[in-house]
């Protein structure tokens, strides 16, 4: 299957959540996890290389896509194979939308969309939702409240939640703003990090299992 972390906005938490989700799956699922870094900044890949210095073994491989002018999915069959595979293929995208992402966004099984409740983020999230509509994306959209601050009153939350729920699944448990998530690496999930994401991720996994009628 293909699970893509994407949204229009930089800094929304895509890469952090993608790393945490990949690490979490390695703990809770027997399926093989593969990561594809499709962001020209290569944050996920660079972190994964840097983490070679740690004394922990690799949990998964990370492949860079879209480097130079290469078009990774000229042959759509490659994408279909990844989609139909029993392995879990995680894609991390850049915050700038590009034509080269169209096929991936159209044919992913799931698109996980982290968002915040600032005005800018709300607009970007809605623009991204519209883009998925234009692409006639078949993917299930899963919206995740990211970097959520418990002590803050988000005035636009009720309206935004209502709007978002029309276009996909809004995960109940937010991913809270946490220092421990700023230092995440690609080789393990500390107890504290796991605690910060498990409710959210369990909801997402439940949704995946229900949609595809499988157990990952
Ligand atoms: N839940 C969180 N709590 C605290 N900091 C976070 C959280 N999620 C992301 N961050 C921080 O926010 C910044 C942007 O996150 P990142 O995952 O790189 O976003 P994106 O990939 O969408 O650009 C990073 O410095 C990251 O450490
Ligand atoms: Mg990123």
From TrEMBL:
Top-level taxon in the UniProt lineage: Bacteria
Note the CDD domains from the entry: ParAB_family (cd02042)
- Which N-terminal residues, if any, form the signal peptide? none
Q: Which InterPro entries match?
A: CobQ/CobB/MinD/ParA_Nub-bd_dom (IPR002586), DNA_Partitioning_ATPase (IPR050678), P-loop_NTPase (IPR027417)
- Which Pfam families does the record cross-reference, listed alphabetically? CbiA
All copies of the CobQ/CobB/MinD/ParA nucleotide binding domain together span 3-121
> What name is this protein filed under?
Chromosome partitioning protein
What is the native source organism of this protein?
Epilithonimonas bovis DSM 19482
